[in-house]
């Protein structure tokens, strides 16, 4: 699908410029800046800022969706989807979940780490429901080193 963002001040290089942006949503690329291309969807961004998505390089906020209070847990698939929705609502388009694989057990134990990775695989990369709001989900794993 081709999309066009008209008007708005876009971050081009290091400055904000009044312009229009053409997007190839299927290819995931900017197809043109300032050009007049045909589009299936046009978004009026006059008076708004058009900025790239934020990358969260180590997020562990998803743990709160899995267990909002001690003893209250949600299915991992539901928690990951809700975590992605919250990220997208805040302008975060790529999340590297900081999954802890620890001796502690529970929320940060090995069984839960495996379940999170399985949940991400089941849901696929890009959990949010529509192409206009995709949040790319990638796991990162930290394993404590044994103390000597």
Descriptive report:
With 148 residues, the protein is an alpha/beta fold. It folds into two domains: 2-50, Roll (Urease, subunit C, domain 1); 54-142, no CATH class. Helix content is 22%, strand content 34%. The chain has helices at residues 62-66, 76-89, 110-123; strands spanning 2-6, 9-12, 15-18, 21-24, 29-33, 41-44, 49-50, 54-59, 92-100, 136-142. A four-stranded mixed beta sheet has the order 5-4-1-6, with no helix packed on it. It has a three-stranded mixed beta sheet with strand order 3-2-7, with no helix packed on it. α3 links the parallel β9 (92-100) and β10 (136-142). α2 (76-89) crosses α3 (110-123). It starts with a strand and ends in a 6-residue tail after the last strand. 18% of the residues are buried.
Q: What would you say about this model in short?
A:
The protein has helices at residues 62-66, 76-89, 110-123, and strands at 2-6, 9-12, 15-18, 21-24, 29-33, 41-44, 49-50, 54-59, 92-100, 136-142.
Q: What tags apply to this protein structure?
A:
Urease, subunit C, domain 1; 2 domains; alpha/beta; 148 residues; 3-stranded mixed β-sheet; single chain
What's the helix count? Answer: 3
Kindly provide the radius of gyration, computed on alpha-carbon positions and rounded to a whole number of angstroms.
19 Å
Distance between the termini: 56 Å
Mean pLDDT: 75
